Amino acid sequence: MAEQLRIVTDSTCDLPLDLVERYGITVVPALIRFGNRTYLDGIEITHQELYRRMLEEDEVPKSSQPSPGQFLEVYKELAAEGASILSIHVTAKTSGVWQSASLAHSMLPEADIEVIDSASVSMGTGFIILEAAQAIEAGRSKGEVLALIEDIKSRMNIYATVGTLKYLRLSGRVGHMQGIFGSLLDIKPVITLREGVVMAVDKVRTRKRALDRVLELTKQAVGTEDPVNIAVMHTRVPQEALRFKRRVEESFNCQELMLGEAGIALGVNGGPGVLGIIAYRVDL
């Protein structure tokens, strides 16, 4: 009997709904807190509502991981169907999601579950999930899929800039970036993710220069000749993102090029105005 592999993730992955449904991926919603009220991400509050409230209200929202109970309920259901579970999540260096999923796994030791730290965010995690789902559909074994995940992780690159330093400052999750704060209030940082940790790689004076640097750094990372998969991700700057996508399309040999609005992984910590590239070389 063929091995039944199922993928579980969390809502920070920003994977488009049509792909979630196409590959039967289970998405466990993260939590967003405004004041004393907590919402299930993507269920009780949309990205549009999240950013509207961030712009209109003084209070900055907080995000938190799904509870172990949320994961346990999903794991029990899939395990009862006889599935082996690959639970793939946002970087453990800046989020408690992996820890919460691991705790749920410990409550169900008889189930075959692999809890995987993607060491990435947003569509970085999303691309890893998509590659795993396609490998499962192609009949690859669990061991082969796990090896593929590690390979894609090692090839993932993320570069982005933000519209304002306000949300980075208030997020409490940018310890490696404290040097960009202080009196330089008008700077535009270029940020990346290295081994799952957010850090600044450059700081410039204008938005245009920041986006130029995002493009330059991505070119250095993945080249311009080899085929690549790329996602241009933004938070509430759709027209600017569309223009930037055209630049990306002209600059790279894109096998897959997506444009999407990011959710809480980038939005709560970076605020409205985040724009960046998530890219990796394709192993043909």
How would you sum up this structure, described in words?
There is one protein chain. The chain is of the alpha/beta class and 284 residues long. It folds into two domains: 5-30 and 65-154, Rossmann fold; 156-281, Hypothetical Protein Tm841, Chain: A,domain 3. It contains ten helices and 13 strands. It is globular, with a radius of gyration of 19 Å. The two termini are 29 Å apart.
Q: Tell me the distance between the termini.
A: 29 Å
Assign the CATH topology of the largest domain: Hypothetical Protein Tm841, Chain: A,domain 3
How large a portion of the residues is in β-strands, by DSSP E?
25-35%
Summarize the helix and strand pattern as letters. EHEEEHEHEHEHHEHEEHEHEHE
Classify the secondary structure makeup into a structural class.
alpha/beta
Q: Residue-averaged pLDDT, rounded?
A: 92
Uncertain regions spanning at least 5 consecutive residues: none
The appropriate CATH architecture of the largest domain is 2-Layer Sandwich
Number of helices: 10
Rg to the nearest angstrom?
A: 19 Å
